[in-house]
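User: Here's a chain of 219 residues. Predict its fold as tokens.
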Amino acid sequence: MKTLLVGVGGMTNGGKSTLSKSLHQRIPNSCLIAQDSYFKDYSVVPVDSNGFKQYDMLDALHMDTMMCEVDSWRRDPLSFMRQRGLYPEHTTSSADEMVYVLIVEGFLIFNHRPLNELFYKRYFMEIPYDVCKTRRSLRVYTPPDPPGYFDGHVWPMYLKNRQEMESMVSGIVFLDGLKPKEELLAAVYKDVCQEIEKLRDGDYCSPARNVRKSILLDV
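Assistant: Prediction complete.
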């Protein structure tokens, strides 16, 4: 049984969830795990000196629970799919050539080292500050963002987390979140499909041996 882990990260409201869901719909035998599903309860998320809840940090997430889900998929992708009402598509004549794909999306997936080390492909959605702030203001959160939250917490933490990510992670494909969704999906889908074919052909290396560089996908 062959497996492929794909990470789709990025800033808040950058389009990572939309891209991940579309990939999941297009790629046979794929599953999707979203980091946003693992936030801790509001009551236990720490508060900074400005009174802002510190949601944009790994300590605000149940990463241990998320890793258990990822490990469960790694042990038995087929059972993982069936437990979620998904059923495998026989895309090849041989079961040995079937490739199961796990798409993991989230804003801090590359900052958590044990998770990051599992990815074969890493994509990062980015958009400019002004676009990000506008998109964030149009979304309704529970609890809602307090006044000044974006500039006082969200954006500074994004810059901090990104700097940390770039210092410890390589092989990231940076994506322009302002490009049409269809164009981004087509480019990433093609890229992932090429990796799937490599796995089927047996021409593949482990995640740890990926080329150590950051690139911009040509879309």
